[in-house]
Design brief:
mainly beta; 10 helices; elongated
């Protein structure tokens, strides 16, 4: 065996000694060693694929380890057999040039063939694994081919097998060398050229703020001219090495898992021909704020937000809306499932206000002063109290308290998403939901006197109750055994409109809203076949609704009341006939603007869902019943029981009705009230035309305007500043003011 092989094996002895100790502790099978794995070496020499007729891994293990007992390591090395080494008359040649296109002499170019056996230590004991590693190292030393570039930068590797593949690389200290072809698996006879870029070794010493060695620092380095970046970690002496090519570089060091110490950025220029360089980086503290957030056990919230504001910023109330957050200087998202810690660094020395938010709710806040270090600021989510939370208790049909529900909180049928939920430890079934400020969330136009609380259970349906805003008592929900529904619609599966029809059950009076979030109302067209199964639902009063899907909209074809009881409920319904309504209007514009309402709700029909031929408007697929036809001038009522063609002859509007005025607000202070009927502006009577709206806009541009209204049967003249009203309405998003004027009749 040649000297090189013994040198390579000697370098492995330390690794093998550790292997013996580690495996001797417990003889466990090691995982499969992939065909590209090189145990105990920094060189990665992948194995070649071999023929399916080759010995199995088990047979290979037996062949590799079936040797006679030996007395010492030298004998083991001597007796270790190796697979055949690929040899032949093949060549690999080429040239190594610098990035300046100059030949580079003295470059060591090596070619290594790929190990022909798949390697696995599964089923081998410690001695067998050592033998296997020695066998591999002997083969690798024997299969390595070397050449050195001459004065012209050329090299030739000889004695290569033309049936084998090789990994070819070039090395010279102080240079980074890569092959031009970017090839990994090379077959002789091939020409492989290399480009070499100079590398200068830069030694960086990093020191902590107290001058000691920074043994856990990391130095980051980026090119000032290109996008290339590299980094290195310091050793125990606080030293790190970077190998950089010529150019301008920027370096910075950071220390600690959270990088709470950081150096100033240093500039370094590397020139060609320069010898190694040394550089020292001094770590400094990064001023900032850190702390923990104490969260009572039982809060059901995914994350919190820490926001940093300048001193004298917004005074946190119970909520911080989007507009209030624009002045923030920094923020941090704190995920509950992780450690409830936060850290914000690189702050300027000054006063700050730290705010803890849950959604938009301010849960805690502190004022701090940051100097030249990290300030500790711990925050706390307070235990719930009845003034801030509503206590809810839910019982299943067996009378047991349960928390396996979803809760929605709202006012006037408007919900506010997922409320902050808290399950107090030791309080079986008690659920606390955050009592939000209703006016801040929904505006002043809604009545904040009571909440609507809806509790939904996957197994038992949904229950809804009202809760006085001033109450502090526990509200209870008790589920009965749920109701299930089977709906039969004779002839439905062959109906021409089947794929466009949708059946659903809704709480009585809640138009279009499903009573169960977990029920799939919208079915795929192919699954839309009767009989239909619905549920579970809480027993009670519901409405069966049938909707027809148009191209862009939906219209209601059927709504009938049903009573559901616990257990199975069987319903039967039919699809009503649909009709076409043809309307002869007086003008093309009137036909274009005509609107329909049915059962108190507007029928949304898009322009491409109806047909207009001049003054003729054709609307297909309407359910039977009473329709209100309305345009800018007036309205008329039509009873539809078959296909019909009518003349649009509306009764003309004679006033505009005032609504949307906030009680005690700025618009009301000008003299307007909800229910007022506007009949004239600045002496111009309402003429039933939409041009009257233009007169309204004109009056809002005047310093003084007079509106004549009917109020409780009496005529009242209101004189006010039109521009003041325009300013109020322009800022309606901030002042919660509004004013609606809709065409109406004086005798409505």
């Amino acid at each position: 065996m040649n000297k090189a092989a013994y040198v390579a094996i000697g370098l492995l002895l330390g690794m093998l000694a550790g292997l013996v100790i580690g495996v001797a502790v417990g003889q466990k099978s090691s995982p499969y060693i992939s065909e590209n794995t090189d145990l105990g070496s920094s060189d990665n020499t992948p194995d070649l694929d071999f023929d399916s007729s080759s010995p199995t891994p088990k047979k290979q293990a037996e062949d590799r380890t079936a040797t006679a007992p030996v007395d010492n390591l030298a004998s083991i090395i001597e007796q270790a057999g190796i697979p055949p080494v690929p040899e032949g008359e093949g060549l690999v040649s080429g040239q190594v040039l610098t990035d300046q296109r100059q030949p580079l002499v003295g470059v060591v170019v090596t070619a290594k063939s790929y190990y022909p056996e798949k390697r696995s230590w599964a089923g081998l004991n410690t001695e067998q694994r050592i033998r296997d590693q020695i066998r591999f190292e002997k083969w690798r030393a024997s299969a390595k081919h070397e050449a050195v570039t001459d004065a012209s930068g050329r090299y030739t590797l000889q004695g290569l097998s033309r049936t084998a593949e090789y990994a070819v690389r070039a090395d010279l200290e102080g240079w980074s060398i890569s092959n031009v072809q970017n090839a990994d698996h090379i077959k002789p006879d091939a020409s492989i050229d290399f480009i070499a870029e100079p590398r200068i070794t830069v030694t960086i010493t990093v020191r902590m703020p107290d001058g000691s060695a920074a043994s856990d620092a990391r130095v980051s380095c980026g090119s000032a001219d290109e996008g290339y970046r590299t980094s290195a970690s310091t050793d125990r002496a606080g030293k790190a090495e970077l190998h950089l090519r010529p150019g301008r570089w920027k370096l910075r060091a950071r220390s600690g898992n959270e990088a709470i110490h950081q150096s100033e950025e240093a500039a370094l220029t590397i020139e060609r021909g320069m010898s190694g360089r040394s550089l020292e980086l001094q770590l400094l503290g990064r001023p900032g704020v850190r702390g923990s957030v104490s969260i009572p056990e039982g809060y059901q919230r995914e994350y919190y937000s820490i926001m940093l504001f300048p001193a004298g910023g917004p005074d946190p109330g119970t909520r911080l809306e989007y507009e209030d957050r624009k002045g923030k200087l920094a923020d941090f998202t704190l995920w509950v499932e992780r450690e409830p810690e936060y850290l914000i660094l690189d702050l300027e020395p000054r006063q700050y206000r730290v705010v803890l938010l849950g959604d938009s709710q301010v849960l805690d806040w502190r004022d701090i002063h940051v100097a030249d270090d990290i300030v500790r600021c711990d925050m706390k989510v307070a235990e719930p109290v009845a003034t801030d939370y509503i206590p809810v208790c839910v019982f299943d049909p067996e009378g047991q308290a349960t928390r396996d529900v979803q809760i929605q909180l709202g006012v006037a049928q408007r919900y506010m998403g997922s409320p902050h939920v808290y399950y107090p430890p030791g309080e079986a079934g008690l659920i606390w939901i955050y009592r939000v400020e209703m006016q801040a969330v929904l505006g002043n136009s809604l009545n904040p006197q009571e909440f609507i609380i809806t509790v939904t259970s996957r197994e038992n349906g949904r229950l809804t109750k009202t809760y006085p805003a001033t109450s502090r008592s526990v509200i209870e929900f008790r589920f009965q055994k749920p109701a299930s529904v089977e709906l039969t619609v004779p002839g439905y599966n062959d109906h021409a409109l089947r794929k466009r029809l949708t059946w659903s059950l809704v709480a009585s009076g809640e138009h279009g809203d499903s009573t169960d979030n977990f029920d799939i109302d919208r079915r795929d067209a192919e699954d839309n076949q009767e009989p239909f199964a619905f549920g579970p639902y809480a027993p009670g009063e519901y409405e069966l609704v049938l909707m027809l899907t148009r191209r862009h909209s939906e219209s209601e074809l059927l709504r009938q009341k049903v009573t559901l009881v616990s257990g199975e409920n069987n319903l039967t319904a039919s699809v009503p006939a649909v009709y076409t309504l043809t309307i002869r209007c007086r003008t093309d514009r009137e036909a274009k603007l005509l609107e329909l309402s049915h059962a108190g709700s507007r029928v949304a029909v898009w322009s491409d869902e109806k047909e207009q031929k001049g003054t003729l408007l054709i609307i297909p697929e309407l359910a039977p019943g009473e329709y209100v036809l309305e345009t800018y001038g007036g309205r008329m009522v039509v009873q539809l029981n078959s296909n019909a063609e009518i003349d649009f002859a509306p009764r003309m509007f004679d006033c505009m009705k005032v609504s949307g005025v906030r009680q005690g607000g700025l618009v009301e202070a000008l003299g307007l009230s909800n229910g007022d009927l506007l009949i004239a502006i600045d002496g111009h009577e309402f003429d039933g035309r939409d041009t009257f709206r233009a007169r309204v806009q004109l009056s809002l541009a005047q310093d003084s305007t007079t509106w004549k209204v009917l109020r409780a049967g009496q005529t009242v003249e209101l004189n006010f500043c039109g521009t003041e009203l325009a300013t109020i309405l322009k800022d309606r998003n901030n002042n919660n003011e509004d004013l609606d004027l809709d065409p109406a009749y004086r005798d409505d």
